[in-house]
Write a structure and sequence with these properties.
Length: about 240
């Protein structure tokens, strides 16, 4: 028995050494959007737990590489750690809900994207007040589509995840399709930012350079895009 335990430990140590850079890369990418009180070491520690979990549960017959599967598990473990320590004040959550609802009402009335000025008018806010809400939201934002209620493991196409019923699979497919349509329908600049941030994993400074805007403005636009997605995905999130 001890022989097998020793083998298991050696296998786990090998995985940790080989994929530690992946854990750190994901942690620092998340840190780019976290408030100052979040420590990267906490994310790395949580990510290592996710990595070990991935090494125990990986099923190569599912068709994904170990690195892809491990990346999903690592991010999931880090996000679990962040959810256990929600630093966002209740006032931020309330303001985010209010902006989301205002966007949803405007878009339902007009049948097009809600504009900044319209949201401000709907809520009775000045431009400074509105941009402050976007900035506050960005400070506490998760750096994946958890912002709009999407569980990253749920969109990993079941790579080693628990089996779901056919009805649940259909619901997941409907959700993913609805999310894809909502992202595609974002205003062009917001869609580009979401794509570059999540698909290409560029940071806000890099995206701002591409678009010719400041890092803070990029952050505001990303927050706005995610609030718009939340408004458009309301049916799935309630």
């Amino acid at each position: 028995m001890s022989h097998y335990k020793t083998q298991d430990r050696k296998a786990q140590e090998k995985v940790v050494v080989q994929y530690a850079p992946l854990v750190k890369r994901i942690a620092y990418h998340l840190m780019a959007r976290m408030p100052p009180m979040v420590l990267v070491d906490d994310l790395i520690q949580a990510g290592m737990i996710g990595l070990l979990d991935a090494s125990r549960n990986y099923d190569p017959t599912q068709g994904a590489s170990f690195e892809t599967y491990a990346g999903i598990r690592i991010r999931g473990a880090m996000l679990d750690e962040l959810r256990r320590n929600d630093w966002a004040p209740k006032s931020v959550h309330r303001k985010v809900r209010e902006v989301t609802e205002a966007m949803r009402r405007i878009e339902n009335r007009t049948g097009r994207d809600a504009r900044d000025q319209e949201v401000m008018q709907e809520m009775g806010l000045s431009q400074d007040e509105y941009f402050k809400i976007l900035q506050e939201a960005s400070m506490f934002r998760m750096t994946n589509l958890e912002d709009v209620g999407v569980d990253e493991e749920a969109i990993s196409e079941g790579l080693g995840a628990p089996q779901t019923t056919p009805v649940e699979e259909l619901e997941d497919d409907d959700f993913r399709n609805g999310l894809a349509r909502s992202i595609a329908a974002l205003p062009e600049r917001e869609r580009l930012i979401v794509t570059m941030y999540y698909d290409n994993e560029l940071n806000l400074r890099e995206i701002g350079t591409v678009l010719g805007v400041s890092e803070s403005r990029t952050s505001q636009l990303l927050s706005q895009a995610l609030l718009r997605l939340r408004a458009r995905m309301k049916t799935w999130l309630t």
